[in-house]
Design a protein that fits this description.
It is built from 6 helices and 3 strands. It has 140 residues and is of the alpha+beta class.
Length: 140
């Protein structure tokens, strides 16, 4: 199998459909891109998901307060779990963790969809490596 470039993968039909569906179903998602070390792995494509923290907090009914946003501002780069962007007290009901699982389930559903033409399917499944807050939020 030929070596694929970042551009080959990010311009792939399935990748584009997946990104568009994620942004539609989860409006707080502003971007999805391959991780910097995506080509270190042979069985999965790892992506970073960029989120708009303000929209995410509205969806989760998290108040826009210094306490709620302290981790977002402390960790402007990618974190492994969506719940790491907020204090633990905001995920007591697992709402943040469950939301992350829904995003991953949507990605899996797209990858397994029979409506994607066979010659346009990605070579590997896509999974979330990290979540990062939109730079506009962090820099305010």
């Amino acid at each position: 199998m030929a070596k694929h470039t970042r551009e080959d993968i990010e311009n792939n039909y399935e990748f584009k459909v997946m990104k568009r569906i994620l942004k539609k179903e989860f409006p707080f998602i502003t971007d999805m891109r391959l991780t910097d070390n995506w080509d270190d792995y042979n069985s999965l494509y790892f992506v970073d998901i960029t989120v708009n923290p303000t929209m995410l907090m509205e969806l989760l009914n998290i108040p826009d307060s210094p306490n709620a946003t302290r981790y977002i501002r402390r960790y402007p780069d990618s974190v492994a779990y969506l719940s790491m962007l907020f204090p633990t007290s905001f995920n007591r009901d697992d709402s943040i963790s469950n939301l992350a699982k829904q995003v991953q389930a949507t990605m899996t559903r797209v990858h397994q969809s029979p409506s994607i033409p066979e010659d346009m399917i990605l070579y590997r499944p896509v999974t979330i490596s990290g979540w990062e807050p939109d730079r506009q939020f962090v820099n305010t």
